[in-house]
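Deliverable D4.2, example record:
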Amino acid sequence: MTPKTVVLDAAEVCGGRLGMLGTICTFNATVTNPASHRGYSSEEHPLIPQLEMYFLEAIDTLVQGIVSTLHQRVLEGSAEPHDDMAPVIENYRGFVADKGRKTINLVLRLFVTEAMAKELDALAAAADGKPQGSIALQWAHGDFAQISYDNR
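Output generated by the structure prediction step:
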């Protein structure tokens, strides 16, 4: 299964200001693959499309909250204009490494502003009961998503 990729045209995305979304943030989550589904490949796995949708919704909820916070800071003058630009999906994918794997991996890559990356870093800081570099997500299939950056 190839990743679903959003083709970006800088003239259309964010009024041509795609460069302000220059940081690529990757979210990774792992879900237990039910024993009854361990014989499926990524392309034929019946649960992957639904898991991708749930994962996208959970991250959308997370980033909407951050964008809202940043927007308020822009209005107050404590943040730079365009710090509150909504992220843009580069690609997302759910997959099993091979047919016998006990886990399903979910990956989502976003173009974000540096201000949003700093907010995500703050959320990913180590805390009691939470691993460093992970963010708690509100979804049914897991507690945390690991975050990393490709170009930071």
